[in-house]
Amino acid sequence: MMTLRQLAAKPETVPVATSWYLADLGEARGRQELFTRQSPQRLKALREHALIESAVSSNRIEGVVVEPARVRPVIVGKSPLRDRDEEEVRGYRNALNLIHQQGGKLAISEKTIRELHRLARGGVGDAGQYKKNESDIIERYPDGRQRVRFKTVPAARTPASMAELITLWHRGLEERVAHPLIALAAFNLDLLCIHPFRDGNGRVSRLLLLLQCYHLGYEVGRYISLERLIEQNKERYYETLEQSSHRWHEGRHDPWPYINYVLFILKEAYKEFEGRVGQVAAPKGAKTELVSNAIAQTTGPFRVADLQRACPGVGLDMIRKILKTLQSSKQVECLGRGQQARWRKTGKWGK
Q1: Were 225 and a residue from 8, 53, 218, 313 both cysteine, which residue would form a disulfide, CB within 3.0 to 4.6 Å?
Q2: At the top level of CATH, which class does the domain 286-345 belong to?
Q3: Residue 338, class by beta-carbon neighbours within 10 Å (0-12 exposed, 13-18 middle, 19+ buried)?
Q4: Domain range 2-277, CATH architecture
Q5: pLDDT digit string (tens) for 190-214?
Q6: Measured between alpha carbons, how far is 63 from 124 in angstroms, rounded to an integer?
Q7: How far apart are CA 42 and CA 248, in angstroms?
Q8: What does the pLDDT average to over 247-270?
Q9: CA distance 228 to 60
Q10: Residue-range domain boundaries for the chain
Q11: Dihedral (C-alpha) 234, 101, 175, 220: value to the nearest 10 degrees?
């Protein structure tokens, strides 16, 4: 709550970079309705793909991993779950479904936050409950050394801190102490610094980011996975979080590195969304386009398994079919045989 306190007590001059992000996002929001009226089938495929990517990426950031072949059965199907990792990935899927289906009715409240945590943690153990013991953020090094990277709010003060955070969020929107997107990023930073749960704080912060974007009218997260973009820019995520959490407890921190990071993620999401939906006349199917985009982003040889990780919403048979089609048109070539065979783009790629 220290960042929202800071904004409420002494609104600062917005950095130039932040102003540019806000302007770009305002324009993207203005074009949003135009793009969401395009190609219903393409949008349906993007929604399913974003759901799968979000559940996979948000958990993978925290070291929770599901085998590529199990992704669709766990997230889209009703396959019996095999282990704790699969429980948490499906739980995150359930939390996403709640936001996508009832986002407009879900108030930003302690009840909502605890429910999202309960779902994301698979409903077991202390899911949905604030931490009962101290849980500082520890950085561990390969040689066994470790350091306290950030001392979180003590367990005894967590309920009061969360109550104040919610109050400051609603008051900030009502009184317009800052641009709503700045308030959104500030809320996200404060939640991570409070660290209200023993485990799962990062996942809850990303779920709330999606929900608050919906409340503010920025619905790109329905079609493009914000979690996947955060994972792709994970180093910058940790770097800006550490920069902006320094001296947070004293209220003397610099929130702008992390605020700009959140705005950057939203801008990248809109850029990708418009790029995908804007090509309505493209003859390719939506899933073919997803795989083609993944191949286009490769810089060297790749395997089928790499495409499975990049396109968790596309089945293995479909990926192989697309590769065969691209091979027939000599846009890609196979460098070996068997499941571990490598592929690469040719000089005719995209022609």
Answers
A1: 53
A2: mainly alpha
A3: exposed
A4: Orthogonal Bundle (1.10)
A5: 999 999 999 999 999 999 999 999 9
A6: 18
A7: 43
A8: 96
A9: 10
A10: 2-277, 286-345
A11: 50
